[in-house]
Amino acid sequence: MLEHVVNGLVLGGTYALVAMGLTIQYGIARIMNLSFGDTIIAACFATWLMFTGLSLSPILALVVLVPAGYALSLVVYRFIMKPLVDRAPDEGALEVDSILVTFGLLFVIQGVLLTLFGGGYTSYSYLNSPVNVLGTTVAANRLLALALSLAIGAALVVVLFRTRWGMTLRAVALAPQSAPLYGIDTNRAARTAFAIGGALACTGGVVLSMFQTFTATGGVVFTMKALIVVILGGKGSVPGAILAGLLLGLVETFVAAYIDPGLTLAAVYTVFLALLLVRPNGLFGKA
Question: What is the pTM of this model?
Fold first, then answer.
């Protein structure tokens, strides 16, 4: 039981880490990024290349890939997303346009990955040694992944709720029409939020690659699960994304262990639909 709890928390913590990036992009920049999962997969392959080709640990890969994800996301926002923002008459139109554009971007990233790495499954062995935790054995890389996910999530919550910069981002998420009245540059906030989301996607890719196999076409799975976590947690709510991600990971792990691994996706959507019936705006969402 304890082993399944730990594995569920590891998986859930990773989902939460991944979903935090998407909830920031969607909640603040109002961009529904369907290429988010493929950015994660690209970071997985980049980590694999650094580990196998340059003998760099995933921790050092974080130092390289997180700033790179931030910078590349700024470029994507400037040349692809900003024209959509400028021409969209309202938030609804922007969401529709961003879905269409990022759907195309998804296939661009996926095509590049397929050309470079093929369609097979890829993995590497890093800290794959057993660790005794309260009488049960857990892989060290999974414990490290959990620690990184919780630490990064906690740091992000502190920044958003305890700093003036974070308060500015939350103000744009809650009241984008009123924020400019208080001297807030909403365009700059949206650009920053989109870049932070890209950096978190790369962070999630590094963490995932430490204990999971991955393939060039696997990005859509992570995008869908991140969307579920974002909706369950409440649009723009980072604490909600953390709680929903942990819940999703535990559900998947326990269903796979005690019922049937083939029913994990069905169980996830069952919980998703049941919670939406009770809380249509998500766990931390506001009507």
Answer: 0.88
